[in-house]
Amino acid sequence: MKSQLPKVLHPVAGQPMVSCVLQAARRAGVQQAVVVYGHGGELVPQSLQATFSDLSFARQEELNGTAKAVEAALPALSADCREVLVLCGDTPLLDGQTLQDFIDVHRCSAHQVSILSAVIDEPASYGRILRDPEGQVTGIVEAKDATAQQLAIKEVNSGIYLVQRDFLQWALPRIGCDNAQGEYYLPDIVGLAVEHDKGVGAVACADYTTTMGVNSRQELAVASQVLFRRKCHELMAQGVTIIDPERTCIEYNVQVGTDTTIYPNVYLERGTEVGHNCLIRQGCTLIASRLGDNCILKDGSYLEEASVGNSVSVGPYAHLRPGSQLDEHVKIGNFVEIKKSTIGAHSKVSHLTYIGDAQVGRDVNIGCGTITCNYDGFNKYRTVLEDGVFVGSDTQLVAPVRVGQGAMVGAGTTVTEDVPADSLVLSRVRQKVIGGWAARFRHQQNEKS
């Protein structure tokens, strides 16, 4: 990955890839999870504990093979654990149903070891499943140790095993490191099981992509695309219209209501909630935001940690920053920025305006080019516009300031003091007309030239 971040923490479709694996395990009914991390991987437990409060962790002191990684985890297992499911933290496409089916097959067999395998046309660096003429599993050979004939095998080891605990504890100390890498390979338990007639089975998954490992940025991008596509198809099955699923990015924990339509190049992330019957046009981004029912987001709008009520129109090219709250039937127009402000019901901020650290009441109209001057270089101050206020274009509201209910602010005004209710405030210079001045000026300029 060419990164200082541990590989399993690289995000795929909005979450660390190891989180995808843990969620699949939980959906398959796994009761206890132990995450093994290596030297320098302390970020792994630090990152996961916030999301998975009941995880156990084991540190592999020496990175000398997968068998030693599993061996490090055994002491953390509960005493009543009888089966050990071994998963790889870099397989984010794994799903709970695939694991559940694998577990069910193992439990219906007499095998001590079951392997989740996959059939791939171009197996590349995956270990190959070896079978005898009767089709029984006889071992696994790593690609680096395989002969040319073995490399032609298309059934591969996914790295996922289900092993009876007693056999696993017996087998792990007996694994050696006589191989090209000088490492202790977990797949060697298969040979031990065969040698001691313990029973080994390989279960081929229906879709090999579910077991795909991620070892590069390119593969990370492919995995993200698959997960985004899965999420889009899940939402479409629930009654959401997505115009182009191949160009729509919706993270795993996003919720979208029925009869909502989503245009291409939309990104919904970090648990965003979208209501029913909304329209989200192309190029919009919603981060940890909430959108009510019957809302319209026009092209290029960006919402972060914002809350939007029902029947609100936003954009095009509007920016709702963290702490923005829009009540029902609000209109936010093009090139408007809202920051840490509440906009009351039926109010309008139609274009080219900045509203920051403000409380705006109901039925307020804010004209084009209005600015709340909320920062003096040291502190932020509040602006309050009470219900029914009308603000003319090109107005500056110098906070802290309050404009009373029903007051009107004339265009071009700089408001520096509180305005009483139902008043008109003006601060611009009175207009002066000098007849014929322009003609005389042009005449003087022409004579000079």
From TrEMBL:
It holds the Pfam family Hexapep. Mg(2+) binds at D90, N215. Binds 1 Mg(2+) ion per subunit. Coiled coil: none annotated. Residues 239-449 are annotated as: N-acetyltransferase. The active site is at H351. Keywords: Acyltransferase, Cell shape, Cell wall biogenesis/degradation, Cytoplasm, Magnesium, Metal-binding, Multifunctional enzyme, Nucleotidyltransferase, Peptidoglycan synthesis, Repeat, Transferase. InterPro entries: Bifunctional_GlmU, GlmU-like, GlmU_C_LbH, Hexapep, Hexapep_transf_CS, NTP_transferase_dom, Nucleotide-diphossugar_trans, Trimer_LpxA-like_sf. Residues 218-238 are annotated as: Linker. One of its GO terms (molecular function) is glucosamine-1-phosphate N-acetyltransferase activity. Pathway: Bacterial outer membrane biogenesis; LPS lipid A biosynthesis; Nucleotide-sugar biosynthesis; UDP-N-acetyl-alpha-D-glucosamine biosynthesis; UDP-N-acetyl-alpha-D-glucosamine from N-acetyl-alpha-D-glucosamine 1-phosphate: step 1/1; Nucleotide-sugar biosynthesis; UDP-N-acetyl-alpha-D-glucosamine biosynthesis; N-acetyl-alpha-D-glucosamine 1-phosphate from alpha-D-glucosamine 6-phosphate (route II): step 2/2. Residues 5-200 form the Nucleotidyl transferase domain. Signal peptide: none annotated. Acetyl-CoA binds at N374, Y375, S393, A411, R428. It catalyses: N-acetyl-alpha-D-glucosamine 1-phosphate + UTP + H(+) = UDP-N-acetyl-alpha-D-glucosamine + diphosphate; alpha-D-glucosamine 1-phosphate + acetyl-CoA = N-acetyl-alpha-D-glucosamine 1-phosphate + CoA + H(+). Its EC number is 2.7.7.23, 2.3.1.157. Its cofactor is Mg(2+). It comes from the Bacteria. It is found in: Cytoplasm. GO terms for biological process: cell morphogenesis; cell wall organization; lipid A biosynthetic process; peptidoglycan biosynthetic process; regulation of cell shape; UDP-N-acetylglucosamine biosynthetic process. In the N-terminal section; belongs to the N-acetylglucosamine-1-phosphate uridyltransferase family. In the C-terminal section; belongs to the transferase hexapeptide repeat family. PANTHER family: BIFUNCTIONAL PROTEIN GLMU (PTHR43584:SF3), NUCLEOTIDYL TRANSFERASE (PTHR43584). Catalyzes the last two sequential reactions in the de novo biosynthetic pathway for UDP-N-acetylglucosamine (UDP-GlcNAc). The C-terminal domain catalyzes the transfer of acetyl group from acetyl coenzyme A to glucosamine-1-phosphate (GlcN-1-P) to produce N-acetylglucosamine-1-phosphate (GlcNAc-1-P), which is converted into UDP-GlcNAc by the transfer of uridine 5-monophosphate (from uridine 5-triphosphate), a reaction catalyzed by the N-terminal domain. This is Bifunctional protein GlmU. It comes from Desulfurispira natronophila. The gene is glmU.
